[in-house]
Amino acid sequence: MARQERAIRTRNAVLTAAAAVFAERGYEAATIQEILERAAVTKGALYFHFPSKEDLARGVLDHAVTEPPPEQPLKLQSFVDMGLILAHRLPREPLLRGAARIAADQSNQRFFGKPWHDWVQLTTQQIVAAQSQGEVLPHVDPGRTAQTMVGSFTGIQLMSQAATEMADFEERISLLYDLVLPSIAVPGVLGRLDTSPRRGARAFAEARASAEAEADPPAAAGTVSDPPAAAFAADRPAAHTA
Q1: Is the domain of 42 the same as that of 84?
Q2: Is the N end or the C end of the chain the one with fewer CB atoms within 10 Å?
């Protein structure tokens, strides 16, 4: 068991280090040597888990998955929350930043745009659900709207990175929703949506609390429970994104 735990820790350390290097250098410029130094592991340990740099990049993409936001009474709020939570997490989590850099790197066609199809599908489903609940105007095309949102999000991410190293990313994504929602939301719903830049942090905290409650249900009388696991911990390589 101890050996298995060490292997998991080593793998996670390598993934986190690789994601950070990919985020800073891009896939082509990233080197195994720099990843080794960041992870503080031996070359043998790294290659045991990831035989090549391509396998490392694939591992980062596969593990940079974002959990769905908590369900809200308004389906459009869940749609907004997904983007705002991601905008909150991207500047703070190496795995997400690394995956985003790999996916946006046109010099590597093996991975270019890899997560976007799944993201468009999920966004389409959210808009369809909101439309079926009467929150989205009947003429709105969910698929085309989802493609526009994913493309806009990715472009804003690159602009924010270039301008402020993503310091203003949450504000920029908040503005994106403020500009798009009036063209798709039913007027009576529009005023009830929270698109503020701070919404992402609050929704993420709700998601973490919900996950911890599910992972650690209340203990029966007379028993002592273990501390809840932080299922949404920002530094864990768990749960695709931009």
Answers
A1: no
A2: N
Confidence (pTM): 0.78
Residue 223 in any domain: the answer is no
Terminal-to-terminal C-alpha distance of the chain: 35
Q: What is the DSSP string of 177-195?
A: HHHHGGGTB-HHHHTT---
* Residue 50 counted as domain residue: yes
Whichever domain contains 29, its CATH number is 1.10.10.60
Name the residue range of residue 36's domain: 2-63
Number of independent structural domains in the chain: 2
- Helix pair 32-39, 2-25: axis angle to 10 deg: 130
* 115 token code pair: 């997560």
Closest Cα to residue 43, out of 123, 78, 35? 35
Domain presence at residue 68: no
- CATH at residue 85: 1.10.357.10
Q: Where are the alpha helices (DSSP H) in 26-74?
A: 32-39, 43-49, 53-63
pLDDT higher than 80, residue 187:
yes
Question: What tokens does 117 get?
Answer: 């199809």
Closest among 98, 6, 19 to 48, alpha carbons compared: 6
**CA–CA gap between residue 50 and residue 207 (Å, rounded):** 31
pLDDT tens for 125-160 read 999 999 999 999 999 999 999 999 999 999 999 999
